[in-house]
Specification:
Elements lengths: L1 H4 L28 H9 L4 H4 L7 H13 L17 H13 L10 H7 L1 E9 L11 H9 L19 E5 L11 E7 L5 E12 L4 E13 L1 H4 L4 E4 L4 H7 L5 E9 L3 E6 L4 E5 L4 H8 L1
Helix pairs in contact: 4-5
Length: 292
C-alpha cells in the first residue's frame, strides 16, 4: 500500500501565510465521500444524456478534448497517467489557452455554476517544478518543509510518474464558510478495495470570484468492504496539522482557485503555483440525474 501512496500527487497545495478568517475544526462525516466514488466507478453510463448543457465554446471544447486525449482522460482508457516529459510543453499551452477561454469565471455567482463546481472530481494530472523530489517518508523533506519553506511532504503522497486515477477531490460549498463547517476532501484510494486515505481541509471563506481559503485540519484512513467489516473502520491520519501550524504559521493554510470550469473539466491552481487538471468521474452526471 505504501508504494501505491507514493505514485499519486494529492490534490492540495500547502501555502505561504495569507489573511483568512478563523475556521472550525474538522467535523466527523457520518458517510465518507469514498462510497459515492465507488458507485460512480461501477456505473459508467452515458453522461451525455444527463449532463447540463455545455457551457464551453466550440474552441474551448476542442482544446478540452485535446487536453483529455493528451492525458488519456477522454474515456478511451489509460486515464489518469501523469503527462510525459515530452508532453509537458503542450500540456502547459493547452492549460493556458483554456484558462483564457474559461466559460465560468465566477463559479460562486449562481446555482447553475455551483452545480458545475461542487462535489466529486477525479484528478488527471498535476504539475509543479520541484515537487517530484519530495517524499512523505523522507526526514530531509520534512526538515526542508518545516524550517526552509520547502514543498509539503503531504503532496508527495502523489508525486511521481505513476498514475493518478486513484486520486479524487470532493468540494463542498465554500460560501458561508467557515460558519457552515464546509470541507474540501482530498482522497487517495489504495491497497485492498474499499481502502482510502482522506485528507480534509476546512474551508475558511470565499477569497474572490473564483477561489476560497482553506486550512488543513485532519485526515483518516477509511477502510470499507471486507476489510472494514459491516460498519467500516477509520484510523486517524498521523500528521499533526495543528502542531505544524504552530511551528510554521501559514504552512497548512492557503487558497485554491478554479481557472477553468465546464461540465467535464476543471483546472485549478493553488496559491503556491501547482496546477491541477480534473475531470468528472465516469457516470457522475448520470447518477446526479437519478438523484434528481
Amino acid at each position: 500500500a505504501a508504494s501505491r501512496l507514493n505514485t499519486a500527487h494529492v490534490a492540495m497545495s500547502l501555502p505561504a501565510v495569507v489573511p483568512r478568517p478563523l475556521a472550525r475544526p474538522c467535523a466527523r462525516r457520518e458517510q465518507p465521500a469514498r462510497r459515492h466514488r465507488r458507485a460512480h466507478r461501477q456505473r459508467a453510463g452515458d453522461d451525455s444524456v444527463t449532463a447540463p448543457p455545455s457551457v464551453a465554446s466550440a474552441e474551448a471544447a476542442a482544446l478540452r478534448d485535446e487536453l483529455l486525449a493528451l492525458l488519456g482522460g477522454g474515456g478511451g482508457g489509460g486515464e489518469g497517467r501523469m503527462a510525459r516529459t515530452v508532453d509537458r510543453s503542450r500540456l502547459e499551452r493547452l492549460v493556458e489557452q483554456l484558462e483564457l477561454l474559461n466559460p465560468t469565471p465566477k463559479p460562486f455567482a449562481a446555482e447553475a455554476s455551483m452545480r458545475l463546481l461542487l462535489n466529486e472530481w477525479q484528478l488527471i494530472t498535476t504539475f509543479k517544478p520541484g515537487t517530484a523530489d519530495v517524499r512523505f517518508t523522507s526526514p530531509e523533506s520534512w526538515r526542508e518543509y518545516i524550517f526552509e519553506q520547502g514543498p509539503s511532504p503531504v503532496q508527495s503522497l502523489v508525486v511521481g510518474a505513476g498514475t493518478v486515477d486513484n486520486v479524487f477531490q470532493v468540494l463542498a460549498d465554500p460560501r458561508g464558510s467557515p460558519a457552515n463547517g464546509a470541507k474540501w476532501q482530498n482522497v487517495v484510494e489504495f491497497g485492498p478495495p474499499g481502502t482510502s486515505l482522506v485528507i480534509e481541509a476546512a474551508m475558511e471563506g470565499v477569497r474572490d470570484d473564483d477561489s476560497f481559503f482553506y486550512g488543513f485540519c485532519g485526515g483518516y484512513f477509511d477502510v470499507q468492504g471486507t476489510w472494514g467489516g459491516p460498519d467500516g473502520i477509520r484510523v486517524p491520519y498521523p500528521v499533526p496539522f495543528d502542531l505544524l501550524e504552530k511551528l510554521r504559521p501559514g504552512r497548512t493554510k492557503g487558497w485554491f482557485s478554479t481557472t477553468y470550469l465546464d461540465e467535464r473539466l476543471r483546472i485549478s491552481r493553488g496559491n503556491k503555483g501547482s496546477v491541477f487538471v480534473l475531470k468528472r468521474p465516469a457516470g457522475y452526471w448520470e447518477k446526479e440525474g437519478a438523484r434528481g
